[in-house]
Amino acid sequence: MDATVASVVADAHRRQWGFVLAATVRVTRDLDLAEECVQEAYAQALTQWAGGGVPDRPEAWLTTVARRRAVDVVRRRDTLRDKLPLLAEDDTAPPADQDIAGRDIPDDRLRLIFTCCHPSLDVDTRVGLTLRLVCGLSTAETARALLVSEPAMAARITRGKKKIKAARIPYREPPPEELPARVDAVLDVVHLVFSTGYTAPSGDRLQRRDLVERAEHLARVLHQLLPGRSGPAGLLALILLTDARRHTRTRPDGSLAPLSEQDRTRWDAAQIQEGLRLAGTALRHRPPTRYALMAAVAAVHARAPGWEATDWPRIVDLYDTMLRVWPSPVVALNRAIAVGQARGPAAGLAALDELVAERQLAGYQYLAAARADFLRRLGRAGEARTAYREALRVTENAVEREFLESRLEELGD
Amino acid sequence: MAEYLLLIYEDEARTSALEPADDAALVDEFQRFMARNATRVREGRRLAPTSAAVSARRDVDGGVRISDGAFVESKEVVAGYFLVEAADLDEALAVAGQVPVPHGGVEVRPIRSVRPTPDA
């Protein structure tokens, strides 16, 4: 019984934290106080649900308890004439003590996400605050996710919250004219969470499933809240289509299986279906957004019966378009790799060599790894060995390192 | 309502090299900006160039050292300011985005409230 309740509460924590917190911030207008009240509501749930059973709508129960607690605290403070440092809020917002029934809760969550991802905060702080406040990760978990020390993460979160207060960063959805830029900043944060989980920057496991699930959840929330926009649909499609390969990315012995060697029959078919549908939705918008184009590339891979039969020219076209919408060295690198598949390793190597001078790619492991692969396929073993050693020097994920080492061994001395 | 100081940073070399007619046009643009934001802008001034600046800095032994020039040497210096009132940062940023500053930018700094917040 207790074990069941504990797991229901844990599940509600994972899924509903941002939802409950967002509704509570409405009452407190103070992030720290709201966090305390939500924490208490979850603690109460553990004992009360064990005695009285799990309510039909756990999130409504938690929200009501957290908000009631917040109202108490705020009233007590108000009578002491100790004015709260207010989170700036839209004047059109309904009064704080209004009952949650009939109110637009999802809108609250969107406000919280936009507050955490405000462009006046630096990107690392945005990611930290989003993981902490919207996903409910602890400071320790957030620090682990972002590969920084716990004190550094705690300081960053504190600074972020202080800036929200001191500068009066508003707790609201941005006005329509600013929405595209703000949505893009939020999508970048979610994408960063996803890529950090999909291939962990270091460590002995290739993936961090918890982060992948958080990112998918956030992308789903954003798509539900902004269904008409191409970016959220594209990002969710990208995540679903890419993550559909999760079971085939490593072999039974734990070593890395590159896309060319993956067993496509084991890709998650249901997830691919949903991803393809969403990618189609995202691509109907003109001009296509960056995430819609990335989803389109993932869709070409998902549809291909095999590595050789992949529509590589189509992928090169998509990267060409992406370079116009969102020019970046990493996009150029991916394009060069696709060129190598479409027109042969010599063409791919030529495209890569144009990027070697790119400062942002210096020390980027995938540039050296891609060069090594093309050189190997061209039979230029000596140069390939040098490139593999270069890639090994900058790769910190153990599974990826092992893969590069095995390729280096195959080349002999 | 909160107050924000919009600090106008400019590349002094470029602004001081403006033709008189261009400089007059810029002044006109500033006046239009102030008229457009009359409900928000409390005050605003253009500063004399940094060559006219003098800095006073406390010495370690408690004395004051006076030196020629701006406080921090850099290409882009504070060239003027506006004090604006806004409900929140987004509103202040919307005003900041309209400041006609062709060769630089605007830093938005919240004015600290008289009564400090508990952990500010």
TrEMBL record, chain A:
Keywords from the named record: Sigma factor, Transcription, Transcription regulation
Gene3D superfamilies documented for this protein: 1.10.1740.10
Residues of the DUF6596 domain: 182-282
Domain RNA polymerase sigma factor 70 region 4 type: 113-164
Molecular function terms from GO: DNA binding; sigma factor activity
Gene Ontology biological process: DNA-templated transcription initiation
Residue stretches making up the RNA polymerase sigma-70 region domain: 19-78
Protein name: RNA polymerase subunit sigma-24
TrEMBL record, chain B:
Ranges for domain YCII-related: 3-113
Domain of life assignment: Bacteria
A family per Pfam: YCII
Leader sequence segment: none
Residues annotated as transmembrane: none
Sequence similarity: Belongs to the YciI family.
Protein name: YciI family protein
Organism annotation: Streptomyces changanensis
